[in-house]
Amino acid sequence: MTQRLTGKLALVTGASRGIGAATAKKLAAEGAHVILVARTAGGLEAVEDAIHEADGNATIAPLDLVDGDSIQRLATAVSERWGALDILVLNAAMLGSLTPVVQIEAKELSAVMTLNFTAQQALIAAFDPMLKKSENGRVIALTSSVGARPRAYWGAYGASKAALDTLITAYGEEVKNLTKIRVAIVDPGGTATDMRALAFPGEDPATLKSPEVVAEAIADLVTAEFETGHRITV
Fold first, then answer.
1. How many angstroms separate the CA atoms of 104 and 109, rounded?
2. Nearest-angstrom CA–CA distance, 153 and 155
3. Residue 2 domain-assigned (yes or no)
4. Are 82 and 34 spatial neighbours (Cβ–Cβ below 8 Å)?
5. Could you list the residue range(s) of the whole structural domain that residue 221 is in?
6. What pLDDT does 130 receive?
7. Relative to the CA of 3, which of 33, 45, 106, 147 has its CA 20 to 30 Å away?
8. Residue 12 near residue 86, CB atoms below 8 Å
9. What value does the CA radius of gyration of the chain take, rounded to a whole number of Å?
10. pLDDT of 62-86, one tens digit each?
11. How many angstroms separate the CA atoms of 216 and 234, rounded?
12. β-strands 87-90, 57-62: how paired?
């Protein structure tokens, strides 16, 4: 099989399971060296083992994205080992409670916005210098349809994704005429993940697409030419 990402460096957040894990494995299968980021070291080690068993290359980076200066420390460590970052996949997110807007607890809303939005800005800012050193930097943000089309009881999560969509698109507009960086938004749609099961506990996962289908779409996207701000629904 022709490897489309040989010699490229990718970083995937939320890489211990679901779409993040599937994407990391797919990018590694395409030849990229993948940095795996998530809170759960055990899950990351399992993904790393799977990548190595398939003759791929990966490095784990267990950390909590909302833990103070952890993102900048990661960026410093990565930049000391590699010169450029070619692909940044912003996948990590939390669902929070599905509840009426008037009943959203301030503490939980802060947690959702911190991971789903604030930490994403910190990742972009920290890795911007390395992305600019890439010949074709790609930033992919995972979103949700509720960010564009609000749904009852999904206010907190939807607001965090709407904010992320605006943030990532604004960044793309800022750098598109100065660099080769291009950004895109991916809405995975109904996918058999733990988050989906949490949101729809009675749903049969067999009726949903697998995370590997989304991973394939992301791999195709980062190896293609597209205008910044491009959006796809899988």
1. 7
2. 6
3. no
4. no
5. 9-233
6. 98
7. 45
8. no
9. 17
10. 999 998 799 999 999 999 999 999 9
11. 10
12. unpaired
Average pLDDT of the chain to the nearest whole number: 96
Mean pLDDT, residues 19-38 taken together: 98
CB 181 within 8 A of CB 175: yes
The encoded tokens of residue 78 equal: 């990565």
Question: Where in the sequence numbering do the catalytic residues fall?
Answer: 157
In total, the chain counts a number of residues equal to 234
Q: Helix crossing, 211-222 with 18-29: angle to 10°?
A: 50
* Cα separation, 182 vs 176, whole angstroms: 7
- Phi/psi class of residue 68: alpha, beta or left (left: φ > 0; alpha: ψ in -120 to 50)? left
pLDDT of residue 1: 59
3 state SS of 66: coil
Longest pairwise C-alpha distance within the chain: 53
User: Can you give the pTM of this predicted structure?
Assistant: 0.96
The token duo for 230 is 């491009």
Number of domains in the chain: 1
Residue 31 belongs to a domain with what CATH number? 3.40.50.720
